[in-house]
Design goal:
With 70 residues, the chain is mainly α. Helices cover 63% and strands 0% of the residues. Helix 1 packs across helix 2 and helix 3 packs across helix 4. The termini are far apart. The relative contact order is 0.19.
Length: 70
């Protein structure tokens, strides 16, 4: 899982996105899930990380193909 997270973070950097600590936390939490989840699930799980950060990061993950919307 750690290597998948590292690969996705490298892809985000390659796309010009910053990989801040909150963004890394969102990426790790999203990729650790084996079942469908909502953005609100992550907002509630990741205390101290803003709702906008979660939504923007999920959008980036969809953009690079790491996640799919359902």
């Amino acid at each position: 899982m750690a290597s998948q997270t590292a690969g996705v973070l490298a892809e985000l950097r390659g796309q010009g996105a910053r990989t801040t600590a909150p963004r890394r936390a969102v990426v790790a939490a999203a990729l650790a899930r084996s079942r469908p989840f909502t953005a609100q699930d992550l907002v509630e799980e990741l205390e101290g990380i803003g709702r906008a950060t979660v939504f923007r990061t999920l959008d980036l993950l969809v953009h690079v193909g790491a996640l799919s919307r359902m």
